[in-house]
Amino acid sequence: MSTFWSPPVRELVPYTPGEQPVIPGLVKLNTNENPYPPSPRVIEAIAAAAQDGLQLYPDPQARAFRQAVANHHGLDVGQVFAGNGSDEVLAHAFFAFFRQDRPILMPDISYSFYKVYCGLYGIEATLVPLDADMGIDVAQYQAACGGVVIANPNAPTGSGLPLAQVEQLLRQQPDRVVLVDEAYVDFGGDSAMALINRYPNLLVVQTLSKSRSLAGLRVGFAAGQRHLIEGLERVKDSFNSYPLDRLALAGAVAAYEDSAYFEATRAAVIRSRELLRLQLQELGFEVLPSQANFLMVRHPGHDAATLAADLRAQRILVRHFKLPRIEQYLRISIGTPAQCTALVDACRKLLGA
Ligand code: PMP
Predict the structure, then answer these.
(1) Which pTM does this prediction carry?
(2) Which residues are recorded with the post-translational modification N6-(pyridoxal phosphate)lysine (predicted)?
(3) 94 and 118 in contact (C-beta within 8 Å)?
(4) What is the tens place of the pLDDT at every residue in 243-265?
(5) Are residues 169 and 51 in the same domain?
């Protein structure tokens, strides 16, 4: 802490990112990246963009990308907002919509950046506990509030909320923004995109980091009715008017052009998840339901922190959260079939199974 820091900065509790090791050859299953590289068309588009035009500023409106997303979801370009990863989009959304007279509502176990943005912007939050099955109980979100944020599928638990329940949330809070963070939705969740033109309070946030294999490029977006997007644009234009650089723009557009690659890789991840679920259950793990590219698992006879450390000693990285209710769980991102096999083999050895 430095005396130069302004008082609010002294109070900040920043996000602790998952480990991004520089050690080669690790089986990295700790931060929910896609195990497959992006489409070759993405690489070609980025190379072409690098050849041409880097001396010029990018399009401050990121129109080509927003248009590609709008076409994909049957929206107008004005209903899409682009940002440097969905983390940035979420930050702008919290600032634009959640600094209200009342606390916002969010699940007690969810993406930990939500709390960080509340701290950053002085937003109060009421944490709503997950139900006994670690799911979101929408009936608990009826109180007068400043807005609602959920992740669907939730993180780090992985379970998805059916669309009818998302609609119930939207109807319960007609005067407040309900932000649905769909970072993992392409792995089997129910997307609320099709509800956008029916609900003026719905903001959907998605990322290209997971199902489009572009965590390294940092591209995310929000979709909603025009008045919400205008709110986000106000914040962006007061902060950084170039949300995407030229390489990110080119790569992100190309990712949407190669839908065959997208479909093939997400299907491969889903297949691996279901196989891994069975294999871990055979080893005695309890596995939470998941519609995401990760599994939350615990072993009744083994301490999660010890298991994570033992796996690390075998060069396999998984995530362990020291948080109430989930401290005995490991979150395992879905890898390639070879990575999943390495994980299962290592677990078998550690458990003596
Ligand atoms: N939302 C959720 C629920 C996440 O798990 C993540 C990734 N850690 C993000 C948003 C942010 O993703 P990105 O900034 O890479 O788009």
Answers:
(1) 0.97
(2) 210
(3) yes
(4) 999 999 999 999 999 999 999 99
(5) yes
